[in-house]
Amino acid sequence: MCIRDSTEILLQALHDDGFEPVFERVDTAEAMRKSLADNVWDAVTCDCAIPHFAVPEALEVLQKSEHDIPFIVVSGVTGEESAIEFMKAGAHDFVMKSSLKGLAPALSREIAAAELRRQHTLAQALLRESESRFRILAAASPVGIFQTDATGGCLYVNERWAQMVGMSPAAALENDWKAAVDPDDRERVLAELDRCTAQNRPFSMEFRLRRPDGGVAWVLGRIEVQAGDTGRIETWIGTFTDVTRLKTTQLQLIERVKEQRCLYLIASLSARTDLAEQDLLRESLPVIAAGFQYPDITCVRIHLEGREFTGETFQDSPWLLASELRIGGALAGRIEVCYRLERPAGAEGPFLAEERTLLDTVARILGRAVESRRRLDALSASEHHLLEAQRIARLGSWTWDIEPDIVTWTRELYR
Q1: CA-to-CA distance for 258 and 256, rounded, in angstroms?
Q2: Whole-model pTM?
Q3: Strands, DSSP E only, in 266-355?
Q4: What pairing do the DSSP bridges indicate for beta strands 330-339 and 319-327?
Q5: Rg of the Cα trace of the chain?
Q6: Would you say 64 and 32 are in contact if contact means Cβ atoms under 8 Å apart?
Q7: Which uninterrupted H or E stretch holds 207?
Q8: What is the pLDDT confidence band of residue 282, given thresholds at 50, 70 and 90?
């Protein structure tokens, strides 16, 4: 998007640097708001020469739109102090009309930076979603809480603990909590409890509870000793947690954490400017594999424009999950994840619905990273050719017309 009087000059400068920009010129706040709402722009350039639509007003429109795209100020007269003020107000860069050669590099740099910010925002949003899910699951966990005196007599139990042992809270207060332990497990539970007491460490063990109606519940019991000033045991504080539901919850949380870590590492690799395109893809292979349920049997392969990147243990498998790899909107390849062994059915073969989302997100991040690198490589190559041409030009040249035996040379040879 262009906010300027001299769009033609700007476009010519971009064309000279190899860009083929798609643009829209606006000169009012309302037109800018409409354009931002109707289109997806990579950047905004703003000319200081528009008196009725000043740079601060344009910046305010962009900021209120919540579009995270570069805002480049272009001016022919603004001094250094004004440029600093524009940057403080939120402009990403400032280019003088007398030096428009700096416009294309500024746009490339800021567009790449905005893309990295979007990738980071995406990873952070997914992380917040995971954390929110964790808080909800933790609050809903079926935990029974109890407190006893030094002899084991109950001082307090919550409703969930009473439900788990099959007693009313009042009845539980009249009984030793150890009476609720299944007789087949009681000996080992008491032996472990004695060891924890002697070594002054917390008790943690999975065992069964036997309810008065004969029902059995597996729980994870955790107990902490509360000692007085003299070191003698005064109370025990413990929890009983239904193991089956907790394990299910733990596995879900572990998978979400693995997925978030995978996205974070992929975004971090994509942000590394020292990694070439092929190195980025190769280093992404183990990171992607680690984000899935069964990393030990997970293989990853990346196809990109006729090239193939695989890990050492890759093998084709019928248990496959794939996602398109697009660069600049065009299909350029795909990422394949497969298991070497059969696993229980999920939402898509043996894969979870969250793993489909993970792979699609990774493909988007890598596609944008490859596109960004290619743009930067093209810009670097263009700058190199220009410098080489200038170097050669300074060497000068000469010609020899053999037939008349005449030699001519340029003035550069005198320098």
Answers
A1: 5
A2: 0.41
A3: 298-304, 307-310, 319-327, 330-339
A4: antiparallel
A5: 34
A6: no
A7: strand 203-210
A8: very high
